[in-house]
Amino acid sequence: MSTPSKKPRTKRTSERPSRSSDPHQVSAVVAPKRPEARTPTRRMRGLDGLRALAAAAVLAYHLIPHTMIGGFLGVDVFFVLSGFLITALLVREHAKSGGINLASFWLRRIRRLLPAVALMAVITLIIAGLLSQDLLAGILPQFVGVVTFSYNWVEILRGASYFDNANPHLWTNVWSLAVEQQFYLVWPIIVLGLVYVRKKFRWILPAALAVTSAGWMAWLVRGAEDFTRAYQGTDSHAFGLMLGAVLALVAWDPLGLPDRKLSEKWVLIRGFGAWVSLAAVIALWFVIPDDARWTYPWGTLLAVFATMGLIQGFLPEVDERPGPGQLLANILESRVLVWLGERSYGIYLWHWPIWVITIKMLPSLSIWVVAIIVIGLSVVAATLSFTFVENPMRQDGIGATIKRWLGPSWDLVDPSKPMPKEPEWKNYRRIMAPGLIAVLIVGTVLGFLLSAPDKTSAQIAVERGQKSLQSNSIDEGGAGSADPGEQKVEPGELPEPTCENVSIIGDSVTVAAAEGLEEKLPNVSINAEISRPAEEGVQIVQAAAKDGSLRPYVVVALATNAPVEPEHLDQILEAIGHNRRLVLVTGFGPARTHWVPPANDLIRDFAAKHKDQVRVADWNAAISEHPELLAGDYVHPLPDGAEIFANVVVEALNSFTDADAATK
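Structure (tokenized):
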């Protein structure tokens, strides 16, 4: 990393040396020109501010749903920055020295990235283990993935979903760091050969790799119900890194030669283009959805190209001249944005596990309060890590810093150090304490890793329900042998709501409650599936009504996984016809399931408008009084909770006959 110039500071060159704190950051410096060329060596301005904005977008996306629906694209901003900066750094090193020291490069990356990741993983693992065993379910392979920067592939191979916020893993956000670290490992080797290609042709290889990666992502999402493989795969999400490299190879001048000077017209055009690109990046954070197939890669590519347009406005030939580009860099160089940008690596690292722990322990807390707590704790943790771990280890080395922390305890195991003698040995607590603390931390981490459960309490609850369905010859994906076949519903009085007359369509909550339902309504027809949304439930009801398998009483419990729209309820009521009766089950979940309260209000209003044909089974009201009967995810019922679920369903069904009796 370059050092600041010793010359007197001017308005345009009074920049501090970058302290690179972003996960994805490598400081880029403007190379000094020959004596007649350009300003003294300094870092590129504006990048720390851009990192701060990108990190804020990711935090908003994770912590406050529907504020920035495309905030996940902040990761792609980091990818472009990393591709650009790493490539510029390597090309500059070759231009100055005639070679690239790969060992030195990789050592710097390890010193830069690993200490912060390891610290975060160890501390959050211990806190999570002390608070809830659910947080540690399947944690061992995740921990290995974190410390080896292979987390994205660990999650892909385990079938985890990045988009499943109902069951978030402790370190899901580390996937992007893994992608970048894998890039840091492979790309320098490619650049080592690329520098021997004529300069005007160097960009072709990363451009071809970018096209291949984007095309592969588009192929992977075809027909896929979950986009995790396409989104988290290094192969399918490398196009941002590659296009950042293209920008560096095309626009970056490693030696800062004077023939790069732009005309006033081009300074204005490129500076104005940077402003337009920034506006585009921010707009995309608000409008690109994470659940649309076209987002991968087309919406993501929009963010990548906009980021490239923004970075080009920070290049020296633009920033060193008065104009809109320099003005934008000045704004992004504000002290607050630079300070946050320098610590954005740690903030990004810490926010997710802190959020997961917080929502686990305080599930009913408002998402806004949770966001404030998480952001505050993340900034504090990132600052402490930056000051006491990241900087010391980057400057002095990981081993030297650990030795300094252990102090006299290290001397006891260092063969080059003599054993302490009197009177030093009498102060044994001072000598032994650091080592004992280190042993305690290591032992605690190993204990939690080796004793962690394979499944969460919610997974166990759902599997218990699945076994109950199977043991009663009921297929959770549809009615099995318990279904008596075609059910004809004639006009006139309805039969009693006994088990033979009830069809239940539900999601994983219904699966978990299967034992209770089967006890209250033996051989009832249950069609329940994990993560089923209301839209899919509409299709199931319509198909069952069409083939005649829908029974006189229909129970729909689909308010947990996704929003319920008025048209969903209208379509269900239309499908069952005038001769059947409908029971709608309200949903219950932690505060982050923000769609549940509106769905419950809609269900109650709909039932009130159709009170002759629709009833409400108020699971929300019933279980709110007994949250201890829920699994650790605050969603799925335990056995006693399943009984409550069955009771509210049976009560709603009986209300139809009670109403008929009252009118006679």
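Residues 1-41, 474-485 have pLDDT under 50 and may be disordered. The chain is about 60% helix and 5% strand.
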